[in-house]
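Section 3.1: Structural characterization of target chains.
Under the original work plan, the team committed to producing a structural model for every single-chain target entering the pipeline before any wet-lab resources were allocated. The record below documents one such target. The sequence was received from the expression subgroup and is listed exactly as submitted; it comprises 190 residues.
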Amino acid sequence: MKPSAYPRLFLSYDTGWPDLRREAPPVLRIFLLLVLPFSLLPAAMIAFVASGNASYYAEHIPASRYSEIAQLFLLTELLSVPVMALAIRSVVMLRGPAVSFRQCFLLAAMAPVPMWLSSLSLLVPNIAFHLACGFLGLLGASALLLHGIPSLLGVERGIEAEDVSYVVLSLGGLMWALMVGLLLVPLLGI
């Protein structure tokens, strides 16, 4: 698939998805070329905050503590993709169609890209801007899942795909909330 087709995946069941379904790269390649670089982005943004704007977010936390937070967040991001791939596969297989782990991993790796990109909002020290970008990232991830489940995984469109999508979105939201919680606990000193 051409990178220029990626934006169309948010709105279409038919553009780009068939190519991905036919030519899903190996899991290791997806991990090394998609998950790892994009997972590094939020960790790098947390380190950036520590270097200049740490007092804007939490005055009581020394900048050195942000390094630990960034490492913990990176680790949870890297672990969350295979966990979500297994969850997606389990939910889809409960509904009937056999689906490969590779396809589920690809979807689990592609879905958080908008959220990873939303971490760039940390370049601007404005919490309202961060919330807006985070919401847009979550919306983008949801759109990728809603279109990817029937198109990439072969779940029949309609109520079946919607049911699977809602379960996967709920699991993804729970995973995201846990990751944000892991980030906030050290920041709030709990």
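Helices lie at 17-22, 27-52, 54-57, 63-94, 101-110, 113-118, 127-153, 159-188.
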